[in-house]
Amino acid sequence: MLLRRESHGHFHVNYEEYRNHPEWFEDEYLMPIPIFDELLSLLSRHLSKQDTNMRKSIGACEKLAVTLQYLASGTSYKRLQNKYRISKKTLVKLIKETCRIVWKVLAPKEMAAPNKESWKRISEGFKDNANFPHCLGALDGKHIRIQCPRNSGSLYFNYKKYNSIVLLALVDSNCLFTVIDIGSYGRENDSTIFQSSILGQKLNKEALDLPEEEELVFGGPKMPYVIVADEAFGIHRNLMRPYPGRCLPTDKKIFNYRLSRARRYVECVFGQITSKFRIFHNTINLQPDSSILVVKVACVLHNFIKRRALNATDGEKEDISNQQNMTPILQRTRNSGLQIRNLFKDYFNTLGAVPWQNDQIV
């Protein structure tokens, strides 16, 4: 069966047929044909190998197709072997090698370290799309189900009663990953993971190259740029979380609503990668290092595909300014996270109010 790969293998039999049916191609290989061709052109030099006297090498296009099929379906190596007529041993090596190359080639461009200019662009996106100014991104963690490694005890066993590694992600308002941290034990909580991550350490050391503090409105206090997160994270002058409790006054409920509108983007991204990369629907039967690599590649491919699919035209933005008094937020500006949160709360209840916010907190 394996020797008949070029005559009976799924890639050799169906690839050209899929290219004649774009809908089928995208379902099979995760992306439209033009994006696939662009990706292949970037990776081809790294994936190609020379033929030998013993056998003909597997082509770059076939390697990429098999890897994308593995990520898209989450099927086992055994089933991929029967489908593509490539031995299981070769598939394991091929997919791992391709994933490493994808990450190495795409990560520097698709997930480059943010600087002041890119942080400002992200902030403008949240201001336009989520009505939350000075927002640098939405932060949250996602448990990725994995097979329990040998001799690991309960390290990977999480509160949801399965073994996992954690994907901690910061995303922008275009549903693109800005920063990711992958591989923490499932038993750890999001706040602990964040504090030990490079992002959290740089935030605490003020080494993230964030934009300088600026006024939200003319004549108001200078406000820092912040990340929005849920109640699992600790508050910081550059990290906002909701007010705790149920029976809150109206102004605090409005702040929580406005923060949740900005934070929803990270939940949307997690839903999108799970829907597209169906390998996340089941347990990943790989060792933790290989599982981390698979998650990294899924994230960078998501950015690669999403960035090219985004509509270049921006819709008309609603003018939400009004003439209410800004006096409540005219306070001192070198404040703790709690005081910064109160300043945002006052802003969202005065000049930063949107017409529908009171209807959403009833």
Automatic annotation (TrEMBL):
Organism taxonomic ancestry: Eukaryota, Metazoa, Ecdysozoa, Arthropoda, Hexapoda
GO molecular function, one term: hydrolase activity
Keyword Membrane listed: no
Location(s) in or outside the cell: Nucleus
Keyword Metal-binding recorded: yes
One Pfam family from the record: DDE_Tnp_4
Keywords tagged on the record: Hydrolase, Metal-binding, Nuclease, Nucleus
DDE Tnp4 domain mapped to chain residues: 139-303
Gene Ontology CC terms, in alphabetical order: nucleus
Listed name of the protein: DDE Tnp4 domain-containing protein
Principal location class: nucleus
InterPro entries in UniProt: HARBI1-like, HARBI1_dom
Required co-factors: a divalent metal cation
Family per record: Belongs to the HARBI1 family.
